[in-house]
Specification:
mainly alpha
Length: 185
């Protein structure tokens, strides 16, 4: 009986792991769009692909989530960060796998001065979508504000690896290299 119990215990982690799902057509299209963004020949082409990626991500949102995101962004723009937090919290409750509510909530947390919560939410964005160049840009900005120029440089390099034609990206990279590595960089 003991060998059987041992065998079952050893098999438990394998049994507990979810089986990988085949990518959906929407996920395949998003993957193709990210590849097109990485290989875009010029900035106008990259901008078109960037807009398509934003559309594909927005298309995943239900009308309720789209409304909450819109309200949250409007509240942030009106310097009503606490109200924005409520909107983004509600959107996360409805769609915890969506990146945009997490990004919005990160921005709202930052606006309230809660840097650790903002960083945790940005980490969640990147956990859900490692190619989220906007989250990496935001992270770079916050790292630079905190005096972590080397971290900001790594974040902007990661964003540019995903979106090499990012508007203002090369200039930002040069500035961060100069700050992080010295004037000779």
């Amino acid at each position: 009986m003991r060998p059987l119990l041992l065998l079952l215990l050893l098999a438990m982690p394998a049994l507990a792991q979810p089986t990988p799902r085949a990518p959906t057509p929407a996920q395949l299209e998003l993957d193709r769009a990210f590849e097109a963004l990485r290989t875009a020949p010029d900035e106008p082409s990259a901008h078109i692909v960037e807009q398509r990626i934003r559309q594909l991500i927005a298309a995943r949102a239900t009308p309720a989530i789209a409304l909450l995101l819109s309200r949250g962004q409007r509240n942030l723009a009106s310097d009503l960060a606490e109200e924005a937090l409520e909107d983004f919290d509600a959107a996360i409750t409805l769609a915890p796998e969506a990146t945009e509510p997490w990004l919005g909530r990160a921005l709202a947390h930052h606006a309230t001065g809660d840097a650790p919560a903002a960083a945790r939410d940005l980490q969640q964005v990147l956990r859900l979508e490692p190619r989220h160049w906007q989250a990496l840009q935001q992270l770079a900005q916050w790292q630079e504000e905190a005096g972590d120029d080397a971290g900001a440089l790594r974040s902007i390099e990661a964003a540019l690896a995903i979106h090499p034609r990012l508007r203002g990206g090369e200039a930002r990279l040069r500035d961060l290299r100069r700050k992080a590595l010295g004037d000779d960089a």
